[in-house]
Amino acid sequence: MSARIERRSREPGRVLIVDDEADIRELLDLTMVRMGLLADCAASLAEARQFLDHTSYQLCLTDMRLPDGQGIELVRHIGEHCRDLPVAVITAHGSTENAVSALKAGAFDYLAKPVSLEQLRALVKTAMDLPRTGDVTIESTTQSLLGDSPAMQEVRNLIERVARSQAPVYIWGESGSGKELAARLIHRLGARPDKPFVAVNCGAIPENLMESEFFGYRRGAFTGAEQDREGFFQTADGGTLFLDEVADLPLTMQVKLLRAIQEKRVRKVGSTSEDMVDVRIVCATHQKLKALVDQGRFRQDLFYRLNVIELRMPAVRECREDIPLLARHIVERLSRPSGLRAPEFTAAAQRALAEYPYPGNVRELENIIERALALLNGDVIDIGDLNLSPQTTHEELPIAGQMLLQDHLDHVEKAAILEALQQTRFNRTAAAKLLGVTFRSLRYRMERLGLNE
User: Fold this and answer.
1) Is 161 found in the same domain as 295?
2) pTM given for the model
3) Range of the domain at 308
4) Which of 33, 211, 274, 402 has the fewest beta carbons under 10 Å from its own?
5) Do residues 124 and 32 both lie within one domain?
6) 76-96, pLDDT tens digit by residue?
7) Please, is 76 exposed, middle or buried when counting C-beta atoms within 10 Å of its C-beta (0-12, 13-18, 19+)?
8) Residue 413: enclosing H or E segment and its boundaries?
9) What's the CA gap between 173 and 164, in Å, rounded?
């Protein structure tokens, strides 16, 4: 990072501006000069390609509508021939579809007309600070996401690519598969690792407090608002806002979130003006958002706005070859605070860990090892120390036809709830999240099945 800064202090960065309107080119050119940057201006796709063939740039700013084509064609051209060059598009006001299309095609970010100079300067500064491809090494990702399986290698490769963009990222995968870890890595490998990373559990905020928590409030806006307060968006300004379990947002809040993302502005509760926010959105859920859209539980327009880049975190059972490495890393990390040498696993324990299904994924693996360490007598972890829960198989379940259908369904439901409770140490909130139901629904089901006794 320091070498990159020193190089730029000696050599002004160069920006390519592509727009068919002379006054827009002049405005952008003047802004670049005032920021200490050099700029070349092109009025068409053909002219822009000529500049790219002979000059190296640190950023390209292009309008979406050009006399000889679309700006998205230039985005794709740069992606194929100048992969290290971030390109931002300028779209018509309210043209969300064009902005999303450009981001999906590989654009770094977008600006809406009329161009806000404050947003423009923030975008340019972020692009100029972006690490070059050679600065991001495989070691930087493997330190956080362990594993040599093809699935994990694919995840790391995608993270390295998306970290160079400001496009929204949608991470999905089963509970405990490392979605927040991936989000933090995207932030750390991006242009602004020193800026805030704000993680929000959308399912843990009461609906009546959501707007004030997300956007902040002014003093006197409601009873108890004794002073101005920043919301999640303002706190994350300049950095990354991670929306965990975004599927839990009520529809009314989804509308307000969509507008904040599109306009890059938020209004505090009780305020008459809006504040500009420069935030990258990364969201995650263990549910499939597309299915929720089909059910009418998640807004389609917000889904397409969030699902610009999709990252799927694989389940542990898809990466069984990584389990020994994960287990070793976890046992060493958990043993470090005590100053004791990390115990070894017997061959039987290693086989048991490799064969276990891990419905709770990495979080469950860590829970198993932490419990084994707490109760361990000696310096070797054997299969008995793991205390693995029995693996439920279809043969163990009552066969439909040997009992009434409702009894059969109750038996299956009861087994699933008990397994989730065991994995979460009987934390009902966490168990409900693991099962994909609300806390109220889980409580009702437990009462009906006689599990509250």
Assistant:
1) yes
2) 0.78
3) 134-312
4) 402
5) yes
6) 999 999 888 999 999 886 677
7) middle
8) helix 405-423
9) 22
